[in-house]
């Protein structure tokens, strides 16, 4: 559940002695036009939050609360594509409440984020996720991993499932991997522990990732029921 307090939601390093980053303070004062004493909520990004009042240094206005982490964790992995679409996908996955977001390196990946390049992109996407988490009033920041190979992803303790047309309905537990625009290679599909479908149409890579996040977080929240196979009716002739 999001913090129940009023006003904007901001992350700080220390809830006991909170201080706002210069950029956050500027945004609250100039863009949102908060005045000293206006309410806001503060979070440490690790599941804790507290109400406060705005000022040069925010003044705590209530006890520290802790939001229990929902389970099981939702992990969505996607192969990055060109342009700003990975930023959009990370933003939306964060808003949905996805716990871990991985950027994959698949056999048919055109865009490959590895080494120092992967770390630069991770820092940029971390800023995108932080802003999206504040907007959506999350108390936990998602874990971001870049340069994750498909073989390495299979080491996830709960297993993995590849998104592919004709697969089974998504289920909670395994990390859900979305392939590149060129699709999965034959080797990746043949060695996949599980294959799941995200719908009846062919989706762009970033759309598929967000669809995966929406389905899994909705399953976890009980908003939708798990899919199940339905036996065909008996022949009545």
From TrEMBL:
It catalyses: uridine(1498) in 16S rRNA + S-adenosyl-L-methionine = N(3)-methyluridine(1498) in 16S rRNA + S-adenosyl-L-homocysteine + H(+). It comes from Iamia majanohamensis. Keywords: Cytoplasm, Methyltransferase, rRNA processing, S-adenosyl-L-methionine, Transferase. It is an enzyme of class 2 (transferase). Residues 20-53 form the Ribosomal RNA small subunit methyltransferase E PUA-like domain. This is Ribosomal RNA small subunit methyltransferase E. One of its GO terms (cellular component) is cytoplasm. One of its GO terms (biological process) is rRNA base methylation. InterPro entries: Alpha/beta_knot_MTases, PUA-like_sf, RsmE, RsmE_MTase_dom, RsmE_PUA-like, tRNA_m1G_MTases_N. CDD domains: RsmE-like. Belongs to the RNA methyltransferase RsmE family. Pfam families: Methyltrans_RNA, PUA_4. Residues 35-71 are annotated as: Disordered. GO terms for molecular function: rRNA (uridine-N3-)-methyltransferase activity. Specifically methylates the N3 position of the uracil ring of uridine 1498 (m3U1498) in 16S rRNA. Acts on the fully assembled 30S ribosomal subunit. It is found in: Cytoplasm. Residues 73-216 form the Ribosomal RNA small subunit methyltransferase E methyltransferase domain. The keyword Heme does not apply.
């Amino acid at each position: 559940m999001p913090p129940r307090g009023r006003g904007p939601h901001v992350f700080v390093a220390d809830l006991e002695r909170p201080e706002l980053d210069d950029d956050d303070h500027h945004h609250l004062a100039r863009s949102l036009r908060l005045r000293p004493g206006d309410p806001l909520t503060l979070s440490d990004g690790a599941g804790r939050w507290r109400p406060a009042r705005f000022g040069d240094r925010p003044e705590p206005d209530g006890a520290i609360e802790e939001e229990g982490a929902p389970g099981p964790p939702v992990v969505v992995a996607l192969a990055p594509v060109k342009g700003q679409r990975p930023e959009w996908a990370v933003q939306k996955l964060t808003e949905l409440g996805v716990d871990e977001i991985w950027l994959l390196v698949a056999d048919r990946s055109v865009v490959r984020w590895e080494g120092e390049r992967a770390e630069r992109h991770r820092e940029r996407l971390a800023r995108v996720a932080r802003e999206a988490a504040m907007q959506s009033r999350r108390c936990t920041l998602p874990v971001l991993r870049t340069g994750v190979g498909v073989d390495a992803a299979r080491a996830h303790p709960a297993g993995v499932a590849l998104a592919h047309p004709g697969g089974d309905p998504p289920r909670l537990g395994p990390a859900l991997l979305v392939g590149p625009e060129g699709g999965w290679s034959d080797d990746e599909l043949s060695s996949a522990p599980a294959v799941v479908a995200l719908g009846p149409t062919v989706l762009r890579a970033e759309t598929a990732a967000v669809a995966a996040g929406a389905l899994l977080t909705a399953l976890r929240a009980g908003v939708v029921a798990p899919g199940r196979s339905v036996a065909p009716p008996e022949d009545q002739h």
